[in-house]
Amino acid sequence: MPDMNMSAVSSHAGFVVKYLLSNWSLDLIITLPFIIVPSLLYFRGLKVAYRDQSEGRPLSVGADTQSVIMFMIGMFLMSVSFFTPVMYWSMVYLYMHMLIHVLVMIAVPPFIVGSKPWQIMRLGVPNRLDGAMDKLATIVSLEGPLASIMRFLTNPLLALIYFIAVMWVWFYPPLMTYAVTNEYVMDLMHFTFITAGIGLFVHLIDNPPFPKRVGNPVIRLGMILVGTYSSFMLAMLLGLSSGPWFSVYSHIPGKTLSAMADQQIAASVLWVLCMEPFVYTAYYNIKLWMSQSDAGEYNEPTPWLKRIKRPVVVPPGSQN
């Protein structure tokens, strides 16, 4: 648990040193698989994609300028969460923890998924691993136990339930205390943040070459609505509570912000910042819905929803 000697911050220079230049972090358990390796694969693959284009081949999906910018923004926000002093101060202030919570679960995923990075990352895999990657892709795509497991794990309904569960479960006070006081539980919490966010938004934004599990924009909008209101409800409970939920944030030496004020600011962070990514994703799907309507396209209902057919009523005398 951090020990805050707030009396040492007596000048602007002291503030800068204490809050901006100190306590930078490097948690390889999270940053290596979710930031460092994906970034290396992506930029290596981008180099391959541009080289192929210069040789006359079509530009790979996700190698356009807009997609590259989106990927860089997503990774920048992820890096802010896990490399900067934000991580340290999230163990002092609940609202800083909430900032990481919102960034990783809700703000980062639309940028990463929307950048369509999967083909570019595949190009970035070293040539000596191509055979293993192709074999794995074949096993997953064919019928069999592993393919069944993958279909289950990528089920849209499961992704929505998992997202809501992760959003709520870690705010159970004993679990929050355990996470703040144990670095490995904190890593587990951050792992669930990342996987829940990416796992939901891959169903809300088209991301080739993977097939659409939810092709109907209207159903996507319903999922967005459920996710948004779940976040709003948690923010309301935190902000309107008569007392602080988490004793672990109440007894930090030198912390001048009261636990209740800290919790109310955290509720405001969740209420305000969770809305924008969902709104932008909803706007994307509304545009998709309108374009499909203009084109006369019809999307079959998603396989995880039961299709209800109305009986066809034939007027008397219309049959030959």
Automatic annotation (TrEMBL):
Membrane topology listed for this record: Multi-pass membrane protein
Keyword Membrane annotated: yes
CC annotations in GO: plasma membrane
Domain of life: Bacteria
Record key words, sorted: Cell membrane, Membrane, Transmembrane, Transmembrane helix
InterPro entries xref list: Caa3_assmbl_CtaG-rel
Record's subcellular location: Cell membrane
Keyword Membrane attached: yes
Membrane spanning residue stretches: 28-46, 67-88, 94-113, 152-172, 184-205, 217-240, 265-283
Name of this chain's protein: Cytochrome c oxidase assembly factor CtaG
Organism: Ferrithrix thermotolerans DSM 19514
